[in-house]
Amino acid sequence: MASPPSDASVYRVLVESAADGMWSVDTAFIITAINPVFQAAFAALYGVQLERGANILEAATGDDSDRWRRRYERALEGTQIVERDVYTVGGKTYHLEFTLTPILNPDEIPSGVAVVARDITESHAILEMQADNAQRFELLLDFAALLAGEITDIEAVYRTTLEFLHRGVPFDTASVQVLDEGMVRIVACAGFEDPDTVNGLEFPLEDRFPNYYVVKNRRHVSLPDAVVEYPHFQSAAGEFTSGHIRSWLGVPLIARDTVVGMIAIDRSSVNPFSETEIALSNGFAAHVAAAIRNAHLYRELETANQTKEVILRELHHRVKNNMQLISSLLSLRGQGMANEEASNALKELRLKVVALAEVHEHLYESSVIGQIDVGEYTRRIVDTVVTGYATRPGDVRSNVETGGFLIGLETSVPHGIILSELVLNSVKYGSNANGEIHVTVRVSHRGGMMIVEVFDTGGGLPPEVDLEHPHSFGLMMIRSLVEQLDGELSYTYRAGAHWRISFPLKPPSNNVTAVG
């Protein structure tokens, strides 16, 4: 709290010359000082020219007047407050931050309120962009995690690619295309009214198609309006199912320095792809190309009847090393970052990468190739989240209860991501009245089902959260992974949050083996 200078005229000079909007009112809400910046803003918003001596609440309208009355009254109780509002003037949206400071008389009794209004529209936009980019990067990591379990099912790779890509790069139609003896063949598509007429479509790799330059130059091609450069997109629409395409993006699939295909993304209106969308699409393409290469390698090894244990162990070992490298880069990037929100986002991303690295570390060390001990793996995931994110790990009490059984890659990857997300939420929001955090994880299997339960002692989910239609990316990701496992997700509150996920296990020979 602060008092103005004893000389009121000096105080008014300071207010009137400030770059931010500034004004002050007395206990009756009469303006005692005001600067031109705020006068101009108020006139643009309400059509009223404010002057000293006017009642500021009478000049405002409706809900705004009531909201500001409550703010002034709180400040007059002797507390400095900071509030943020969003206003729209002339079709433009402004984000403003208001600091209300009590003005104290010589007896330390509030005699008025001084207000500073700061335009934070630009910084708000930067924060939104950082959050959006962090979410896109997280989407890419989750996509990579899902592909890690699809080494044998290349069709699933294609489907997963288009599903995840659409979340980060909105499109109307898209396709995955592979090279086959000088021809381009569509192996998966999304958004088309009749996908059966598109899947399997072949056309020559010729320079009358932009696909040619994607493959030849080994880099993406982005067309703001494809019809301008390639009019046959419309004139030969029946032959190529391309009459709807306006903005177009193609990114190459490069595996082991060889172009094996491309991803084509279409928009039905002229809406060019941004640099961020292009970068994200290239990131997806890199993972898809690696997955295609791994799937082909796996098939070749099976056909040749070669042993695959050594190869798979080496593959998991290399993936683990790559994940650890990404984790180290994220850790270095987060050091010294001034923006706490962005720093926390990177920290959470790093935890997801570490969880994935744990999968491949266990697979590399496992005595049964392709399977891991669910108990040891679960404990290491919980310990990693607690030590990596908790402000004071000593305040977090964690307990892991598991039976002795092994699970395969197709189960361990989504299990690790779901578990790390739920435990992270408990560490962030699950403190009880004493500031302590108690987290219990229980993993079991019975009746052909694997059951994962996470308990904490916090306040639980806010009542406005709808699990059927979640808005947070974390809950959306959990639901997506549970659906991928053909499982069920439930949440209850029992003196704390209680999450329960159950999903069917594959036959023991492929997925689960009892230990001991």
Write a concise synopsis of the structure shown.
With 516 residues, the chain is α+β, with helices and mostly antiparallel strands. Helix content is 46%, strand content 25%.
User: What gross morphology would you assign?
Assistant: flat
Distance between the termini: 67 Å
Structural class: alpha+beta
The chain-level mean pLDDT equals 78
Largest sheet: 6 strands, antiparallel
In total, the number of strands is 19
Blueprint (SSEs and pairs):
Blueprint: H1 8-16, E1 21-26, E2 31-34, H2 36-46, H3 56-59, H4 62-76, E3 81-89, E4 92-104, E5 110-119, H5 121-148, H6 154-168, E6 173-180, E7 183-190, H7 195-198, E8 202-204, H8 210-217, E9 221-223, H9 226-229, H10 232-235, H11 237-240, E10 247-255, E11 258-267, H12 275-303, H13 309-334, H14 340-365, E12 371-373, H15 374-389, E13 396-402, E14 405-408, H16 409-429, E15 437-446, E16 449-456, H17 473-484, E17 488-493, E18 497-504, E19 513-514
Parallel strand pairs: 13-15
Antiparallel strand pairs: 1-2, 1-5, 3-4, 4-5, 6-7, 6-11, 7-8, 9-10, 10-11, 12-14, 14-19, 15-16, 16-18, 17-18
Helix pairs in contact: 5-6, 5-12, 5-14, 5-16, 6-12, 13-14, 14-15, 14-16, 15-16, 16-17
Describe the 3D structure.
There is one protein chain. The protein is 46% helix and 25% strand. The longest helix has 29 residues, at 275-303. With 516 residues, it is an alpha+beta fold. The protein has a six-stranded antiparallel sheet with strand order 8-7-6-11-10-9. A five-stranded antiparallel sheet has the order 2-1-5-4-3, with helices on both faces. It has a five-stranded mixed sheet with strand order 13-15-16-18-17, covered by helices on one side. Helix 6 (154-168) packs antiparallel against helix 12 (275-303), helix 14 (340-365) runs antiparallel to helix 16 and helix 16 (409-429) runs antiparallel to helix 17.
